[in-house]
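Severity: low
Component: inverse-folding endpoint
Summary: output formatting inconsistent between runs
Steps to reproduce: submit the following structure tokens with default settings.
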């Protein structure tokens, strides 16, 4: 009877912590002893788990969260919570942002309350030497005590490193390893529990490796960006998937401008990043991956909520113009879709475009298109678009093109992306001087009347209805939220045919 009463009290404590975090986003009112008791029970739950766990679809996969509790709850409001939906989190719950302890405690409570529906993997920031210096230690010391931080770290040491979904999708935080020769390399792997064990062999690569962003890259290369582990090329991805007979590798660890990004000539690696506007300055979107029972994948993508006070005046002006046109483009403002970016040139005979309506000399200026009014709802979740694409043949649109991205979870993380500024300037079309008398030109025809404003699509929470795919140059609008879906043909249709997008 006493044991049953104690267990009932513990379940009540976990439920109260979940309610407090979901409603108030803090743990005030709970003592250190209560939190330590939850962490001790979490340790007992995680310790028997192997380094690689097996899961069944359907499920939702989260990438890096990094203490962004409000954004994590925005995702929770868009999907069904456990036990209605299984969660697989790929690590990096802590550091960088100020609610790491609340995010981790919420995930631990979810796992204790729904042990069969929530699985947490270990990221590189769940290692003591990382979160000791990147914010989590100081947060625990400031809000609670160093003793609480040590209890968290003991739980981190027992987190699995990888997960296998329906024997077809392999998930981890970082990447693959040259030391993985077969399934036994993962199934018999021992969980690293010391800093030294985290820095060598397969555990290091599962938490730190990256796919190369060079489309022509091949083989294994030392990861100079991380100063640890490897970068692996397209040929390595193909050979690894053939070796283990899997269709897709899902990982996190890197900031992606659109929240998710496919890599490899067969798109067999997908990076998922779930922290929008990373650290408050990157301006990136964030995504979670939904995997159906038939292994159909789709994405829910949130736009960043930017703090304009932290941005430079030039960046604020650029975002304002992009928002007015309801487009977020990697190209400079003034660049027209389908044409290369133009380089400003002050020399005689070169035209310098200043806006989207700038045209060559001597040509009339077309009328401006009225700005679209973004849809409104409680969380500013905006347009959804479905694109039916097989996993093995996902065509890369402009929103998925690999760029010079930052380090995601590692030191010096950030968002990059270089623009091509080597295009020759556009010469003016003014005719050369002539000795013949100049005849007055006929007045230009009156411009066409302005088109009617485009009505925004009806907002919906279901991403199953297919609609025309967006153009390669359009992305989510900065400053609001949106959902972008990519749906595959399922595990029985992993052929190499390309679907229309």
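Observed output (run 2 of 3):
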């Amino acid at each position: 009877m006493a044991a049953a009463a104690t267990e009932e009290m513990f379940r009540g404590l976990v439920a109260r912590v979940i309610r407090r975090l979901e409603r108030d986003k803090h743990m005030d009112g709970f003592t250190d002893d209560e939190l330590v008791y939850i962490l001790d029970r979490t340790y007992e739950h995680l310790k028997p788990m192997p380094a690689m766990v097996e899961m069944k679809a359907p499920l939702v996969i989260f990438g890096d969260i990094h203490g962004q509790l409000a954004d994590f709850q925005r995702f929770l409001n868009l999907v069904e919570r456990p036990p209605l939906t299984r969660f697989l989190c790929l690590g990096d719950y802590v550091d960088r942002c100020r609610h790491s302890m609340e995010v981790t405690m919420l995930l631990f409570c979810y796992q204790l309350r729904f042990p069969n529906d929530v699985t947490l993997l270990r990221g590189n920031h769940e290692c003591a030497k990382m979160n000791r210096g990147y914010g989590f230690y100081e947060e625990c010391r400031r809000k609670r005590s160093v003793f609480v931080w040590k209890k968290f770290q003991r739980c981190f040491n027992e987190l699995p490193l990888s997960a296998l979904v329906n024997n077809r999708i392999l998930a981890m935080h970082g990447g693959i390893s040259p030391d993985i020769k077969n399934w036994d390399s993962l199934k018999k792997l021992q969980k690293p529990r010391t800093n030294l064990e985290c820095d060598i062999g397969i555990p290091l690569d599962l938490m730190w490796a990256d796919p190369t962003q060079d489309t022509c890259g091949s083989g294994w290369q030392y990861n100079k960006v991380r100063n640890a582990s490897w970068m692996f090329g397209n040929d390595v991805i193909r050979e690894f998937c053939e070796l283990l007979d899997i269709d897709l590798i899902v990982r996190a660890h890197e900031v992606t401008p659109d929240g998710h990004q496919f890599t490899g000539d067969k798109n067999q690696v997908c990076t998922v990043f779930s922290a929008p506007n990373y650290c408050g300055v990157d301006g990136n979107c964030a995504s979670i991956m939904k995997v159906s029972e038939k292994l159909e994948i789709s994405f829910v993508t949130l736009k960043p909520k930017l703090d304009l006070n932290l941005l430079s005046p030039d960046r604020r002006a650029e975002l304002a113009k992009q928002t007015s046109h309801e487009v977020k483009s990697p190209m400079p403002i003034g660049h027209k879709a389908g044409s290369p970016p133009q380089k400003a040139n002050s020399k005689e005979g070169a035209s310098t475009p200043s806006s989207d309506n700038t045209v060559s000399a001597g040509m009339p200026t077309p009328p401006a298109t009225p700005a679209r009014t973004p849809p409104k709802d409680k969380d500013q979740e905006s347009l959804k678009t479905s694109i039916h694409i097989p996993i093995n043949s996902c065509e890369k649109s402009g929103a998925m093109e690999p760029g010079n991205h930052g380090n995601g979870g590692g030191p010096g993380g950030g968002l990059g992306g270089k623009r091509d500024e080597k295009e020759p300037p556009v010469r003016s079309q003014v005719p050369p001087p002539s000795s013949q008398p100049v005849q007055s030109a006929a007045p230009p025809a009156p411009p066409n009347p302005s088109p009617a404003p485009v009505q925004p699509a009806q907002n919906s929470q279901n991403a199953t209805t297919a609609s025309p795919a967006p153009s390669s140059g359009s992305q989510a609008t900065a400053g609001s939220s949106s959902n972008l879906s990519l749906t595959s043909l399922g595990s029985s249709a992993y052929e190499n045919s390309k679907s229309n997008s």
